[in-house]
Amino acid sequence: MTEEVDQNFEALLEYLRQNRGFDFTGYKRPSLMRRVGKRMQDIHIETFENYVDYLEVHPEEFSHLFDTILINVTAFFRDTAAWEYLGSEIIPRILAAKKGSDPIRIWSAGCASGEEPYSLAMLFAETMGENAFRERVKIYASEVDEESLMVARQGNYSANAIEPLSTERKERFFEHSNSRLVFRSDLRRSIIFGHHDLLKDAPISRLDLLVCRNCLMYFNADTQRRILGGFNFALNNDGFLFLGKAELLFTHADLFSPVDLKYRVFAKSQTHARERWTATAQSGATEINSQGHESRLRDVAFDVAPMARLAVNADGQLAVMTQSARDLFGLSSQDIGRPLQDLEISYRPVELRSLIEQAHGEKGTVSRSCVERRTGHGEAQYFDVVVTPLYDNGAGLGTSITFLEVTQQRKLQADAEDFSRKLETAYAELQSAHEELETTNEELQSTNEELQTTNEELQSSNEELETMNEELQSTNEELRTMNDVLRQRTDEINTARSFLDSILDSVRVAAVVLDPDYNIMIWNNMAQEMWGLEADEVKGTAFFNLDIGLEVGKLRQAIRACQVSGTNDDVVLDATNRRGRSIRCRITVTKQRVVEEKDRGVILLLEEVNGQTEA
Fold first, then answer.
1. What is the model's pLDDT at position 274?
2. H/E/C letters for each residue in 229-285?
3. What pLDDT is recorded for position 142?
4. C-alpha span between 385 and 392 (Å, rounded)
5. Taking a C-beta distance cutoff of 8 angstroms, is the pair 149, 193 a contact?
6. CA torsion sign, 190 to 194 to 199 to 200?
7. How far, in Å, CA of 408 to CA of 430, rounded?
8. pLDDT (tens digit per residue) in 528-541
9. What string of DSSP letters covers 118-178?
């Protein structure tokens, strides 16, 4: 049964993709099914198959369904502490890295109804001044939901939506329009709103700050990696990524490094950023071509080579180096592209420029043996330096420089006799240590994999909880609206009831209202005055069980006739009022005006008449 439900749900997603262009295949299935199920429950549809039929007949339902799936829960400066950190720490770093006139590019991805990009505009305007903001800053705000995007473009909000802002910000950045507030038009021009699908559309590039809060948690792991690959490509080398409180990047450390995990701020990882995104974006749900795998394999194999190796291009610039070379000579990825002559390694521990010239002059490998290098602690290291010119079809490509450490060999030569006596014992100890190390390494690797799996499960659970929290917040807003409507209607009913009571109390005849079961509903002041019973004593009691100075049983036929035929009738009876005086009482029996005939009650009007009037 579960498999059949899953198949029907996938058929529904395929129908949405073909008919409306919305591709939800990358979304997490549990939360997606829960949101669709909520909409189906609202319109009383039980199966996904029946819901597809309903969509075919009612095209307006697509809009309601997308509003339910795309939970647009947002607010100005949502998670205040994180925004304060962004304003106090990250924005000054962005501005410090820029020259005075350099443009600043920001992208708010998944901006919902616009509160997030307007919050960014306020922070940057406060930090750098409004004139500089208008001249230098461009905020690109994107959203896949067109209705939310329309609200965001207007920048028109209710007083409740603006409530989180301080009075100073309200007065500085908003203008009054009737009972609503509108974001200032001169600052609004720096914000560009547009439709953008994170799954299909190319990312906006050359960004200094990318804000995508509480969007990634709705996607599965593969889709998240594709999107984050695009984000990595979109950011400048010194750009920042600002995520929501439910989103972490422990499994994407190759793409981003944390700046502050508490506030979910990350920096772009520098290594092979463009290549990573290109491969990820081109793959999508398909396979990466084998050539890309082989190119990446060559890069990684070169980088992890055990010896220190450099490659210098034909222009004398450092082109590539192994991890061992970086560790040994204190180089970094920022040195890539710099002239070799500007680096310390060009002359220490050996003069490389003359060796390079010699190698190209002889068109063959040149080497130097036992080159000494002193470490920072004064220890001596010895290397064999091998310089090899690189050619392609006779054209010079550059030079390969390899440092083979021979320190151990030199020591072995000096201590050959001593080591020969201890060699057998050392070998046995080394073998044992190696086996223990291999065992420990396997155990650590297994433990690490378990921890990664547990972490991913915890992150997934956290994202699920955050999704449910936003769903509950959305439902709470709906209940609050319904409560306001019920409160208004209750006030209207109470007003109508007070109005009716005042009318009945002002009538100078006794008025009694009976429900369909002849129980007393209303007993006005004149009825109390005539028969001596308070309203609280008789309300809800059977009229024909009253013991008053009027033979109520004689009214049974007239009351029933009024209920059945709806005709009014007057009956005159002898009675005794509360003071014990005999009177003639005229009783007018009138039907109630009600919506359903089966609920018809009657109204009795009782008044004293004298004998002369009767005559």
1. 45
2. HHHHHHEEEEEEEEECCCCCCHHHCCCEEEEECCCCEEEECCCCHHHHHHHHHHHCC
3. 93
4. 23
5. yes
6. negative
7. 16
8. 888 888 888 888 89
9. HHHHHHHHHHH-HHHHHHHEEEEEEES-HHHHHHHHHTEE-HHHHTTS-HHHHHHHEEEET
Q: What is residue 614's DSSP assignment?
A: H
Fold assignment, 304-406 = Beta-Lactamase (3.30.450)
Q: Which two tokens stand for residue 280?
A: 């990820």
Question: What is residue 545's predicted lDDT score, i.e. its pLDDT?
Answer: 87
> Can you name the residues that pair with 309 across neighbouring β-strands?
402
**How many residues does this entry show for the chain?**
615
Under-70 pLDDT residues of the chain:
1-5, 21, 70-73, 246, 248-253, 270-300, 303, 393, 432, 594-599, 611-615
The domain 507-614 belongs to what CATH superfamily? PAS domain (3.30.450.20)
Q: Which two tokens stand for residue 284?
A: 């999508």
- Beta strand 308-313 pairing with 318-321: antiparallel
Largest CA distance in the chain: 152
What CATH superfamily classification does 98-280 receive?
Answer: Vaccinia Virus protein VP39 (3.40.50.150)
Please tell me the distance from the alpha carbon of residue 414 to that of residue 380, in angstroms, as a whole number: 14
Question: What are the Cα distances from residue 410, in Å, to 180, 330, 383, 404, 520?
Answer: 83, 24, 10, 12, 116
- What is the residue whose two structure tokens read 């009214």? 555
Predicted pLDDT of residue 153: 92
Q: Domain ranges in the chain?
A: 2-69, 98-280, 304-406, 415-500, 507-614
Long-range CB contact pairs, 261-264, < 8 A, 24+: 263/81, 263/82, 263/85, 263/86, 264/82, 264/213
Tell if the pTM clears 0.70, that is, is over it. Answer: no
Q: State the residue for tokens 């003639």.
A: 584
The predicted pLDDT at position 292 comes to 44
Residue that is written with structure tokens 């028109």 in the block: 156
Sheet holding 510-514, edge to edge: 520-523, 510-514, 602-609, 582-591, 569-576
- Which among 195, 314, 244 is positioned nearest to 81, based on CA atoms? 244
- The confidence score (pLDDT) of residue 71 equals 64
- Residue 302 CB-half CA count within 13 A: 15
Q: What is the torsion angle, in degrees rounded to the nearest 10, for the CA atoms of residue 62, residue 67, residue 69 and residue 71?
A: 170
Distance CA 257, CA 261 (A): 10
pLDDT value, residue 499: 79
DSSP character string of 460-513: HHHHHHHHHHHHHHHHHHHHHHHHHHHHHHHHHHHHHHHHHHHHHHHSSSEEEE
Closest CA to 462 of 470, 230, 211: 470
Query: Fold match between 2-69 and 507-614?
Result: no
Single out the residue of 121, 348, 417, 95 nearest to residue 240, CA to CA. 95
- Rounded to whole angstroms, how far apart are CA atoms 184 and 490? 40
Task: Give the Cα separation of 217 and 212 in Å (integer).
Answer: 11
Tell me yes or no: is domain 2-69 CATH 1.10.155: yes
Structure confidence at residue 126 (pLDDT): 94
CA dist 92 and 87 (Å) reads 7
d(CA 463, CA 218): 8
Least Cα distance to 513 among 550, 559, 573, 569 occurs for 559
3-state secondary structure of 601: coil
Single out the residue of 247, 267, 251 nearest to residue 259, CA to CA. 267
